[in-house]
Design brief:
The protein has 297 residues and is an alpha/beta fold. A 7-stranded mixed beta sheet has the order 4-3-2-5-6-10-9, with helices on both faces. Strands 1-7-8 form a 3-stranded antiparallel beta sheet. Helix 1 runs parallel beside helix 4. It is globular, with a radius of gyration of 18 Å.
């Protein structure tokens, strides 16, 4: 897949440039190529968003894991394209305190983060909307549960988890983020923490290009119209929803969480990789990721 519209900001779905692809250790069956969809900005309901994004990730999980699997690792907890690692960030808490904790990873993909958590002695559950993404989790392996479900309707009892996390999972793709946040709060025990990362909202004002052309404002930051890719019949095949930074904070508060930190990772000198519109050039000038650290009282 390639960038389409000038306002796209899609870290999970944009491949590395073709000459930088790194194959996975095992063969993966590739889905047949589909006609290139039309990129537009239009309203997209919650139902349409879920249907489109489940289908998109099922079709593109193979490419995504092939192109980004090396950067993500099999058992590494990375919060975004900058490469901020939970080992150093400790946004869920010190690694030694994770032992014995029940942790829900939302939008887990191939469950790299859950696998790291299991390595620290935690008891993770990896949840994703895409069945194909979870097949990659099975391919890599692990002894923790995998659950295919919508983040807005978590199939768990109240107070099932001590912690929850989501690295670019679910929140960028849902039409009603408060619904997701409230359900996450429901399944957390009192004192539980939820940490999630999303594309930094300011990125929606810039073209999604890694070079100099991606440094000029091209759209209104305040335009909340979703980014949609649709087929020839106008059916959405991919949807991403924009929220301003203030919207995200209000969503957290409206869901009953307390916001305890907002992290904007700086681009590290060691990271020379481009990931779609994420690049050292842009990363040294404007933020690319926003991480929200929330607690349930």
């Amino acid at each position: 897949m390639r960038p389409h519209g000038p306002h796209r900001a899609l870290p999970r779905r944009v491949p590395l440039r073709e000459d930088r692809r790194v194959p996975t250790r095992e063969p993966i069956i590739q889905a047949p190529d589909a006609p290139e969809p039309e990129a537009t900005r239009r309203d997209a309901s919650a139902t349409e968003s879920v249907h489109a994004n489940r289908g998109w990730w099922d079709r593109n999980a193979d490419d995504y894991q092939t192109e980004h699997g090396t950067f993500l690792g099999d058992d590494r907890f990375v919060w975004g394209p900058e490469g901020l690692d939970e080992v150093e960030a400790e946004l869920l808490g010190p690694a030694e305190d994770l032992k014995g904790k029940d942790v829900l990873e939302i939008g887990a993909g191939a469950a790299q983060c859950a696998r790291w958590l299991a390595g620290q002695g935690a008891r993770p559950v990896a949840l994703d909307l895409s069945h194909r993404q979870l097949q990659h989790a099975l391919r890599i392996g692990g002894s923790f549960p995998l659950v295919c479900a919508d983040a807005g309707a978590l199939p768990f009892a109240d107070g099932s988890f001590d912690l929850a996390c989501s690295a670019y999972g679910a929140l960028p793709f849902v039409a009603d983020p408060v619904r997701v946040l409230r359900d996450v709060r429901r399944v957390l025990r009192p004192g539980g923490r939820f940490v999630f990362s999303v594309t930094h909202p300011i990125r929606w004002a810039f073209p999604d290009e890694p070079g100099p052309e991606g440094l000029s404002v091209a759209a209104s930051y305040f335009d909340r119209t979703p980014y949609v890719e649709q087929d020839d019949d106008g059916r959405a095949v991919y949807v991403e929803h924009h929220r301003t930074l203030g919207d995200r904070v209000r969503d957290v508060v409206a869901s009953g969480f307390r916001l305890v930190d907002l992290v904007e990772p700086e681009w590290p000198a060691w990271n020379t990789q481009e990931w779609g519109g994420w690049s050292p050039l842009r990363g040294n000038l404007i933020p690319g990721t926003a991480i929200f650290v929330c607690e349930r009282d």
